């Protein structure tokens, strides 16, 4: 379920525009830790380090190198996403990172994906002034007790709510999306969630839990029958081809450039410290991965061959299957 008070532009069908001269999105994994231990996330496992004193942060100089390289594209990319495998608001340079990207004008939008718990009046004012355009907040409960149950963290829900409300009311130029997972709200509590957050967001969503971490028993959280749904609640689009490498890239804390943001699939295309994102994006190594994907999973002899996470976010606009031969020929000509 998703309700929008203010819509963003719709995507074109990917098959009609690939190969892209520049990616639609570049996602930065800024930090490897989180202040929550959400039940559905790998951070809930005992073998994960959640001690923020030992956090691995992307160095600001690595970040600046990446942003500077994005200037080489013919036009600004659609969106920079500051997220990854941790809570981005924990990064000590988050304000300067937003500001640097905004002043560089390399992207039409700059988005943070956050659990929202670190928002304060001062933080909100600072990230808005720095040039943030999109804020995506994952709400993990509707009460103090919920947060203890779902995140193993004590949160003053009233203060949490008031800080989100303050952000929305004082940042009209920022597009705010608020979402919660379906297993956290039954039918009655769905309405509570909608009543609380509909008036302090531009888009509100109840998303479907996705079983993406092998070591977590998701059936203990929700019936297995619900796993046929994609994250937006629709039935999963069927496709043999992961579309992510055709429109996005991910940059991890060390500056490694990868074709997707799946934690267990780390196919490194290069590093911003020694390579150039502009050259990597249209280069032979990236194109050969795309061609292998277009030929089918049985051809791809790497991590992609066993990954199905892409189906959790797949939309009809992403499907490339029926045009795979034509797209392969376009990519092969690009490599010549």
UniProtKB/TrEMBL annotation:
Gene3D superfamilies: Aldolase class I. It comes from the Bacteria. InterPro entries: 4Fe4S-binding_SPASM_dom, AdoMet-like_SPASM_containing, Aldolase_TIM, MoaA_NifB_PqqE_Fe-S-bd_CS, Radical_SAM_PqqE_MftC-like, rSAM, rSAM_sf. The keyword Iron-sulfur applies. GO terms for molecular function: 4 iron, 4 sulfur cluster binding; metal ion binding; oxidoreductase activity. Keywords: 4Fe-4S, Iron, Iron-sulfur, Metal-binding, Oxidoreductase, S-adenosyl-L-methionine. PROSITE patterns: MOAA_NIFB_PQQE (PS01305), RADICAL_SAM (PS51918). Coiled coil: none annotated. Residues 20-234 form the Radical SAM core domain. Its cofactor is [4Fe-4S] cluster. Pfam families: Radical_SAM (PF04055), SPASM (PF13186). PANTHER family: PQQA PEPTIDE CYCLASE, RADICAL SAM DOMAIN PROTEIN. This is Radical SAM protein. It comes from Aminipila terrae. The lineage of its organism: Bacteria, Bacillati, Bacillota, Clostridia, Peptostreptococcales.
């Amino acid at each position: 379920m998703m309700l929008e008070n203010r819509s963003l532009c719709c995507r074109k069908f990917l098959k009609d525009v690939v190969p892209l001269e520049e990616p639609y999105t570049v996602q930065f994994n800024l930090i490897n830790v989180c202040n929550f231990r959400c039940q559905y996330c790998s951070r809930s496992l005992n073998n994960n380090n959640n001690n923020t004193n030992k956090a691995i942060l992307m160095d600001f100089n690595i970040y600046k190198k990446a942003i500077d390289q994005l200037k080489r594209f013919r036009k600004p990319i659609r969106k920079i996403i500051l997220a990854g495998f941790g809570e981005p608001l924990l990064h000590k340079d988050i304000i300067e990172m937003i500001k640097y990207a905004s002043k560089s004008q390399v992207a039409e939008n700059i988005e943070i994906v956050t659990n929202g718990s670190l928002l304060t009046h001062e933080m909100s004012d600072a990230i808005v002034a720095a040039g943030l355009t999109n804020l995506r907040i994952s709400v993990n409960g509707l009460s103090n007790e919920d947060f203890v149950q779902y995140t193993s963290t004590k949160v003053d829900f009233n203060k949490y709510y008031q800080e989100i409300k303050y952000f929305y009311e004082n940042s009209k130029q920022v597009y705010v999306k608020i979402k919660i997972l379906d297993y956290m709200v039954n039918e009655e509590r769905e309405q509570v969630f909608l009543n609380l957050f509909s008036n302090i967001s531009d888009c509100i969503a109840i998303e479907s839990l996705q079983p993406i971490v092998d070591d977590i028993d998701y059936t203990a959280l929700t019936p297995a029958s619900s796993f046929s749904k994609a994250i937006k609640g629709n039935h999963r689009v069927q496709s043999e081809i992961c579309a992510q490498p055709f429109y996005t890239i991910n940059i991890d804390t060390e500056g490694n450039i990868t074709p997707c943001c799946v934690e267990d699939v780390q196919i490194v295309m290069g590093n911003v410290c020694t390579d150039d994102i502009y050259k990597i994006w249209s280069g032979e190594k990236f194109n050969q991965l795309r061609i292998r994907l277009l030929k089918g999973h049985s051809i791809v002899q790497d991590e992609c061959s066993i990954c199905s996470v892409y189906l959790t976010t797949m939309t009809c606009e992403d499907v490339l299957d029926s045009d795979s031969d034509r797209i392969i020929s376009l990519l092969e000509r690009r490599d010549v």
